[in-house]
Specification:
With 360 residues, this protein is an alpha/beta fold. The protein contains 14 helices and 12 strands. The strands form 2 sheets. Strands 3-2-1-4-5-6 form a 6-stranded parallel β-sheet, sandwiched between helices. Strand 1, helix 1 and strand 2 form a beta-alpha-beta unit. Helix 11 crosses helix 14.
């Protein structure tokens, strides 16, 4: 199999990079992928050729172990890209560009797309790396309008964190009925991080008969000891799951949990995958206060900011859910998704133009 003209370079596992579905749909030409397999799992995403760097990195890895793993990926990526002669590269997250910045400046200046999906410490000592990567890129896209706060002035098309959800599932969710006396099911669906934050959430809702909490995804097992120690009876923990199981999780959820915390740029600026999934489904979502996600759910009326330092936050969530108007909720969700569609059209045009520009 010959080398494609485009290579996607990412420091993430394929299963942890849902944006690959969008690239597969929009590129309209073959592509290769160079990715970091952190879990020891071979994966596929429609690429012609897979360059897989095996560097298992556990969540509790030490700084030394992390540095060793990143250096290993750096050497592997440089070896592959020096041998190859790609016309264009697509890199994400930002750290992928940092690692091979000298190579990008020397061989791929104005011929790479930098896909900025997270805050990467740009207000600190690493900011100059991002600024250099942006300056030498042919196109820079962002996943949240709020990211403009830490980037140089410029035109940044917004590539939202969208995932396809079957319209039949959406219709089934919006048509479902629930018994009023059943506990309200709050679900965290995705990789479970910020464990202390999730433990505080469990504490606030612990054994409250009005609620049942579900943590579904890699990392949920880290909450088991806490639940056992405190005799928590209204929490279900489910580990890594196959995508085919998502419909059943959605249909059994009344509200989405998106409580990561705040007062750090990593969390304050982002728009998470869960926000879009909730809006598409017509599902109310719980977000942290003083974040850009609070701005969005307030503007469009499909969520509630929950301050976990408030001992009465469970009462606020209960009152909010009971007062919800489904019609108003769906109207707000659909209005938000209409604005997202406009951004997506601009992004798709920018991506096509960049890929077709033979002088980039």
């Amino acid at each position: 199999m010959g080398q494609a003209k485009i290579c996607i370079v990412t420091t993430r596992n394929i299963f942890n990079a849902p944006c690959l579905e969008k690239y597969q749909r929009l590129l309209r030409q073959p592509y290769d992928i160079l990715y970091w397999d952190r879990c020891g799992t071979e994966e596929s995403c429609g690429a012609e050729t897979y360059y897989r760097y095996e560097g298992i990195l556990k969540p509790d890895a030490s700084l030394t172990q992390k540095l060793k793993a990143y250096l290993g990926f750096l050497r592997y990526a440089k070896r592959i890209l020096r041998k190859a002669s790609y016309e264009k590269l697509i890199l994400f997250p930002t750290q992928a560009a940092w690692l091979i910045l000298p190579l990008l400046k020397r061989r791929y200046r104005q011929r790479y797309l930098l896909d900025i999906r997270d805050y990467a410490g740009e207000h600190g000592k690493t900011g100059f790396l991002t600024r250099a990567a942006v300056r030498h890129a042919g196109l820079v896209t962002i996943t949240s309008p709020a990211y403009r706060a830490f980037l140089p002035d410029g035109d940044y098309p917004i590539s939202h964190n969208l995932q396809h959800i079957d319209p039949e599932l959406v219709a089934a969710y919006r048509a479902r009925s629930r018994e009023a006396d059943k506990p309200i099911v709050l679900s965290f669906i995705g990789s479970v991080r910020f464990i202390e934050q999730q433990q505080l959430l469990i504490h606030r809702f612990q054994n409250d008969p009005r609620f049942h909490l579900k943590f579904i995804g890699i990392g949920s097992e880290l909450l088991k000891d806490y639940c056992d120690k405190h005799a928590v009876q209204n929490v279900t923990l489910i580990g890594r799951f196959e995508r085919a199981a998502l419909p059943s999780f959605y249909l059994d959820t009344d509200m989405a949990i998106n409580l990561y915390g705040n007062r750090t740029p990593l969390l304050d600026y982002a728009l998470s995958n869960k926000l879009y999934s909730a809006a598409i489904m017509g599902m109310p979502i719980l977000v942290s206060p003083d974040t850009y996600m609070e701005t969005i759910v307030k503007q469009y009326g499909f969520g509630l900011a929950v301050d976990l330092s408030d001992p009465a936050c469970a009462d606020r969530v209960y009152d909010y859910f009971r007062a919800l108007s489904p019609e108003a909720l769906y109207h707000g969700c659909d209005a938000f998704m209409a604005s997202v569609a406009e951004d997506e059209a601009h992004y798709a045009a920018a991506l096509t133009s960049f890929m077709e520009d033979t002088h980039a």
